[in-house]
Structure formats: C-alpha cells, structure tokens
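Weekly structure sync, notes
Attendees: PL (lead), two postdocs, one rotation student
Agenda item 3: pending single-chain targets
PL asked that the sequence for the first pending target be pasted directly into the notes so everyone works from the same version. It is reproduced below exactly as submitted, 468 residues in total.
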Amino acid sequence: RAHSMSGGIPAAQQSAAVSKLNLAIDVAAKQGDLAAAEKLLLSFEAKGGKAATVSYNLVIRACAKMSDITLCERWLKRMEAAGVEMTVCTCNTVMDACAKAGAAEACEAWLRRIIERGRDPNVISYATVIYAHARRGDVGRAEAWLQRMLVAGIQPDAVAYNSLIHAFSVKGDIAGASRWLLEMRRLSLETSVATYTCVIDACAKAGNADAAEQWLQDMLSDGVQPNVVTYCAVIDACAKAGNLQRAEQMHERMVDAGIEPNAHSFTAVINACSKQAGPESGKMAERWLDKSLKMGVVCDAAIFSSAIDACGKSGDAERAMRVFRRMQAAGHKPTIIAFAALARPFAYRGDWVKVESIASTMASEGVRSNEYFLYAQLLSYAVARPRQSERAEERFREALRMGVLVNDHVVNVLARALGKPRCEQLLADLCPNRNNARAKLHSNAGSGRGGRPLREGRHARSTSDGSS
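Predicted structure, written out during the meeting:
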C-alpha cells in the first residue's frame, strides 16, 4: 500500500495506512525507542507515503522527551519540506523540549513564531514558556509571561500557576508562593497536593515552621490530603528552625494519620537532630535511625550519612564511627558526604592520624576528596599538638593536583595550620589567580571555629556523586 500511496489508491485506504503508521510510531515512542520511531516514518516516506501532521508530531514528541531541540527542529524542517502543515500542537511540542533543556529564550522564540504565522497560541503555549522561565528560577519573566497571557485573553491554568509557585518555592520566597496559591483559590482552580507542598517547601527553605504548619492546616481545610513529601517539608521547616521536638511531633502526627514513613521522612528528622545544638544530638540521631530499622523502613545511604553528620556535629566521634560501620555492614557504599562527616569530629580533636586513616579508606573505595574533606584534614593538622604544618602543606599540594576546589574556608584553616606568612606565600606560588587571597586571610581572621564551611551539610548533600 505504501508503494502506491501517491497513485490512485482510495482515500480510505490511504487513511488506514497512515493510522497504522501512527500507531506503530506511538508504540515505539512510548517504549522510548526514538530510533525505531524515526525509522518507521523515514521508511514510510521512502516508499512514497504521505504522512499526516500527527505522524510527524509523534516523532517530534519523542525527540522532545529526550530534550533534543536540534532533532526536533530537524524533523520540523522535514515536515515543512514534505508539505505537511505545522500546527500549534507541533510548536508546543518543540517548546516543551526547549523548556526541559533549559532554553527559555528558544521557547519564547517558538511562541512568537506561532503568532507570526497567524496562529493563536493556546494555554499550553503560554504555560510552557512560563514553565521554562520558572524552571530556571527567573520568576520575574515567568510572571511577565503570565500577564501577557492574560492580556491575550487566555486564562492561565493550574499548570501555569503551579510552575510559578514552584519557582518561588525554590527561592524560599514564602510571600511569592503564597500569593499565587491564593490567586488559584480565588479563580477556583484546582489546588493539588503538589501545589501546597511547594508552598510548604518555601517555608522550609526559609526556616519558618509556623508558616509551614499553618499551610498544612489550610491544606487539610481545603480537602487536600498531604502525603509523605508534604510532611517531610514541614519537618524540614522545623529542622531549619532548630526545633527538634516539633520535628519529632510532626513525624508522629504523620504516622498517626496513616501515612507510611520512609527513608526520606526519617532523614528529615535526623537532619533536625544535627541542627540541634548540644552533645546529645548524635545520640538522638542514632535513636531515630534505630527506629526506622525497627519499622521496616528500607534505609539508604542518605539516612546513614545524616546520622553520621549529626554525630560529627555533636563531637561524638565514636558514635559517628559506629554508625559508619553499620552503614558499611548494611551494604551501602559511603560517599564523600559520609566520609567528610565522619572526619569532622576527629579533626576537631586534632586526631590527624585517624583523619588520615579515613582518607586512606576513602581512597581505597574510589571516592574522590572534595573541599569539605580537605577542610577537615587541614583542621586536624592545625589543631594537633604539636601542629603538623608539613603534613598540612603536603595535603594541600596533593589536593590541588587532584583538582579539589580551594574556597575561602580552606584558605583560612590552611593559614591556621601553616601560619599566615607561609600560607600567603604558598597561595602566591600555587594559586596565582587568587589575587584576593591575602585580603581574605586578613578579613576572615578569627571568623569562627576554624573557618568552618558555610552550609556544609546542605552543600554536601547536593553533591551526592561524591565529586567536588
């Protein structure tokens, strides 16, 4: 049938052939086999077949799922060359690929292209541009496009508002996230569990436990049932506010509500333990770790690492090592997060021998060092009595050869280990591009417990692959 497609074959038969083609392309695309989807359409064209708009849209959508903008545009050109009409749906599909690839400007360009061709963009067109900017954290441009959408006479849908709320949530902007959720309510748009959870997550990032709990209550009053992710966001808010008791109560409240806890929820409480000042935080963290195991929760490396972090921050080196051993016994390969947390309490003691032993274990397991572990090593040499200046310089040189990032906190603790004059000379020799190193040393002198890295735990968790 494909061979005679351009001949005098009846329209019904042509339609059946195209329908069969579309079905095959759709199956291949859903299976994630882009190559097969492309091959089907190319073969159909080679046999003289006249594919429909839907045929090309299906292939372009498969490319979009791979966030391959170049391939999307290549198929669009092929589509136009074949004389097949490009629809708003086609452009929306390409825009989706641009948005997922972080190309917000390209997304905007495609929307303008729709307008230039005399077509009317639809709610999906505008919502995709809003999502593209919101995903990149550009709330200003996301809001501007929502206003353009309204001027065009198109009422934004829940997807557009949820994108805006998420963008404000990532920034920890409670006012911005709350404002758009309230607007959704005013317009009687459906607010989902994800909508409320994003606002609560904004409260968590801002450390506002009161606001987080109030939004949880509003959520329940609105008839939306929270899930484990929602409760974890509230627990995170309590943790950042330094209120362990409230975090524990929220976890219990979640369990009482019939929501099954998981590794994430227990990790959230353990993180609250690590932010609780005092020598007991490590003990409480291990207690919550034990509780998770008793409840049959499948623990991951993150929950053990968080417990080690809590032990380290409380100065309980022996407990930190015990949890580390338990982590290994459970079959979890420690990441740089766990190693850096484990080294910290020994470093504060000046136990450089133990820190070097941890570094050897880390190297034997193929885990690369980073600036946080380097900081712990240098601190152990600086605090040791007698001070281990030669070892500190050797480790610093080695770290530079390995490509480890040198931040201001590393520089400060290096100065403690070597003395400022030698540190400045070493930086001048090895890091000539750090023109402000000398100024940093003087301005940061005496700036707190050994120049400890800011947001250490949070940053470490963001580099879960162990790379620096």
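Discussion points:
- Residues 335 and 465 are 7 Å apart (CA to CA).
- Residues 11-30 form the longest helix (20 residues).
Action: rotation student to compare against the earlier draft before next sync.
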